Amino acid sequence: MDVEKMSSVVAGAVDYSGSSADRAATGGWIPAALILGIEICERLSTMGIAVNLVTYLGGVMHLPSSTSANIVTDFMGTCFLLCLLAGFLADSFLGRYKTIAIFTSIQILGTSMLSLVTKLPSLRPPACIANDSNCKQANSYQMGMLYFALYMIALGTGGLKSSVSGFGSDQFDENDAKEKSQMTYFFNRFFFFISIGTLTAVTVLVYIQDEVGRSLAYGICSISMLVALVIFLSGTRKYRYKKCSGSPLLQIAQVIVAALRKRKMDRPHDISTLYDDNPDESRIRHTDQFRCLDKAAIETEGDFDKVSERIPWRLCSVTKVEEVKMITRLLPIWATTIMFWTTYAQMITFSVDQASTMRRNISHFLIPAGSLTVFFVSAILLTLVFYDRIIMPLMKRFKGKEGFSSLKRIGIGLVLSTIGMAVAAVVEVKRLAVGKTVEPSSSTTLPISVFLLIPQFFLVGSGEALIYTGQLDFFITKSPKGMKTMSTGLFLTTLSLGFFFSSVLVSVVKQITRRNGGQGWLEDNINNGRLDCFYGLLAVLGAVNFVVYLICAKCYSDQKAKSKEIEATSQGSGGENKC
What's residue 131's pLDDT? Predict the structure, then answer.
């Protein structure tokens, strides 16, 4: 009887009242689906705003195209950067459930305010004909109100994204074979379903923005998030919760501080003398990389307090040091994936600007410029289905592997995005050539089909499908168990830094190419600029970045192979410890 009772309790999880979580009464697919609903609505809201924001900034607020692009990329960059802050709060104080509830409420307030900002005539400049010299840009008050709404949304998005996937995985027990397979299925479908939310955003929501009204579209975002929040809260009694265990950032800081305190000490030749208070079964084998960090595990006088308790800022265990080393090894891969998201940023900024100048008619129906990203999202969905239904079964049959490794998926994604930028440069050359045959005016629709942009959207979209799933898999599976949330936040910061780098690159290119009164690559009217050169620059940077990535990936793989070889040798010789 006691054994049956033990098997019905999920280790390490509690229910809403704080008691041990019952397997039959909590967790599983239904609670996970309620959590997934929040993420789908967040994607609908955030992407519905981001993909068409550049046309609002240029057409309604009368800002230059480069300024509009930077506002969008700064907004998206902030969304993902705030994931680190929200992740710290979730791990250390609030827990994932409260974090999701609080930040969803903040996002609802933000989208409601954005709906109001786009509705009131006093919060936008007077309407005017494009390229008119008397056309007034939005003043500081109008832009301030818009910024306040956008960054409230960014705060809500950051809080959600830091905890949704983690709280979803909390609903499954890794120690139970059946639930572990369900969790794998959950993660495999997670990106697919949020892409459905994005697809709805770039089609239905963008159409409503352009043809009915932005205020109504943003109001729909608020209502959908409110409904999702109510549904999420309805599952409170069914969820499994994990207690706050403290932020991994604190552990990293402690190892670094302890190592710096003992930087002048010599590292012992016998590593068995290094301090480690973890049980044998949970210890991590010592590695020779980043030896300077090993000094944090050297025992000295003053490392313990009066009651013989270890002072964590002076002495850390070998296992804690090795966990920090594991995170450190991820950083080269982390750094070389940032460039992809800089390329991605062009798909929701300058590529939308391009579309707004091209012929977008299908019979009498005018496709909104922001809806061209439907090809981008379609490429993601098609690539995921193709990979899941064709590539994975073939590789399992002929090579006995479950598809490409995470590093290979990331590499393929980088290649596709680089080719996408090269293709985009060629298409832009053709668009500019057509533009020279008509009278220069940003209000003129060029006699060239917008469907020429499909290849660049498709290539970068397919690249995202592979690189996003590859990054998520890599950062979760290659990080220490206690740092999964932080490693997910680390992955999301590549998106943030990619968007911020795009803003910096746009500003630098604009300033340098306008020197001495020359023609700038990124003019206020893209028909007067050289966007093809900017795309070409991104293709070159992407190619260089890919070469660096290959080197980093090979070094990481070699180090992992070396570690496995050492471990096998140790076990084969009857090693003293099986750490």
Answer: 58
